[in-house]
Amino acid sequence: MKIKDIAFHDRPDQRLIKYGAGVLSDYELLAIVLGKVKDASILE
User: Fold this and answer.
1) Residue 31 burial (CB < 10 Å; 0-12/13-18/19+)?
2) Of 10, 11, 12, 44, which residue is 20 to 30 A from 4 by alpha carbon distance?
């Protein structure tokens, strides 16, 4: 399942904001980190 297929309010980044890191699985935290890295430009 892709992150884009998950309802907006159930996405890991939204759950992190609402509930904190303690409720997220390692996979969800990793998805957030990798998603932020993917969106960043390596030239900046």
Assistant:
1) middle
2) 44
**Pair 7, 1: CB distance under 8 Å:** no
Q: Write out the two tokens for 1.
A: 């399942």
> Is residue 44 assigned to a domain?
no
Map 22-34 to HEC letters: HHCCHHHHHHHHH
Instruction: Dump pLDDT digits (tens) for 7-21.
Output: 888 888 899 999 999
> Quick check: 36 and 3 in contact, CB under 8 A?
no
Residue 23, φ and ψ in degrees, nearest 5: -95, -10
* Count of domains observed in the chain: 1
Q: Domain for residue 7, yes or no?
A: yes
